[in-house]
Amino acid sequence: MKTKQIYYTVLLLAFLTAPVSAQQEKIAVLNIDTKGITLDEVSMGNLVRLEVEKTGKYNVLDKYDLDYLMKEKNLDYSDCYGRICLVDMGKVLNADKMLTGRVEKFDNKIIFILRLIDVHAGTTEQVDIMEYLDLPELQQMVQISVNNVLGIENEMNKVEMLSDYDDPINTPKSKLRLNGPRMGFSYIGGEYGDILRDREYNGGYDAFPATALIGYQFEKSYLSAGDFQALFEFIPFIGGLEQSRIIPSITIMNGFRSSKSGLEFGVGPVFELNKKTKGYYVNDKWYTVDEGSDIFGSQEAIPHPLETRIDSRGDYELVTAWIFALGKTFKSGYLNIPVNVYFSPRKNGYVVGGSFGFNVSKK
Alpha-carbon distance 18 to 15, whole Å? Predict the structure, then answer.
């Protein structure tokens, strides 16, 4: 009696612990149509097949078994992407399900379309369409799309990282904040540049009329309609460090950017702090008011018209000007790389230069 109980117990345990795969439906993955990406149809099919196997949801027909059966039946599945063809192939392979699809790069997106086909019913059971960022993580994208079409939950953080677009929605309520560091240079021309070259005892800086800039860009897209975005930018800069000077400035601009090409234009005021003083010119030589007072006895006795100009011996004062900028924002996933050139006319000269930076788009 004991021997029979042990026997039946062993049989029950064997039944309960039998491989689940024996009860699973069989699925076959042929080639996946591709366009504009690095993987061809066969490689993408292999990658999708791998991710389906990793889910453990189906008994996946091995690639080598697939090739053997196709060769034995003298069939070619290289261009088999439609439902009718896949149903016929599924019957030949004795499969319950067929998985097919298409992966295509379009503009700055990679579009995944996967279709799960029921061979016995001859119908499309499930379709999943995903738009991903143009990033190199193709296997992660395949994993997400395979899970979607098979009804398996994905990690939302991973989905958002690969598919959350920073492109503005075409509505007056769309707002983007594109903040990040800025670096650049400027060249000063005209009389303004001549003053910088001049000797310090004559009010100059004894320096080359160019400077490096470092700052931070605060940018906001406050309106998006059609192909254009309206922008507001606030950029504090510091320059002159290589000349042992500190020239703080703030640039405020309004402008437009093309959502398609990334080309942009902006215009606005510039506010700088620079050393200035009063004085006068005699035969192209600059004299300060203090020097004139020493020569003529008092400021009132100076017989020349007085004016205010940049002078290394003066006091910091607010200097204002206009700035006109052109540029293009290059995009790589979430990363934006703005590159700009600008021109700023001044009373006694001009400033030209360029800047670049990077920032991350946030909705």
Answer: 5
Same domain assignment for residues 121 and 188 = no
Beta bridge partners of residue 102, listed in sequence order: 33, 113
* Structural domain includes residue 170: no
Buried b (16+ CB within 10 A) or exposed e, 199-212: eeeebbbebebbbe
Between CA 130 and CA 110 the distance in angstroms is 8
| Token pair listed for 213 | 């800039």
Residue with tokens 């009804």, as numbered in its chain: 151
Rg (CA), the chain: 35
Strand partners, 335: 332, 360
pLDDT tens-digit series, residues 44-98:
999 999 999 999 999 999 888 888 888 888 888 888 988 999 999 999 899 999 9
Distance CA 310, CA 245 (A): 14
Assess whether 141 and 186 both reside in one domain: no
Count CA atoms within 13 Å of residue 88 on its CB side: 10
Residues 61/93, Cβ–Cβ less than 8 Å: yes
Number of independent structural domains in the chain: 2
Can you tell me whether residue 5 is helix, strand or coil?
A: helix
Q: Which two tokens stand for residue 57?
A: 């949801």
Phi and psi, residue 254, nearest 5°: -115, 145
pTM value is: 0.52
d(CA 112, CA 110): 7
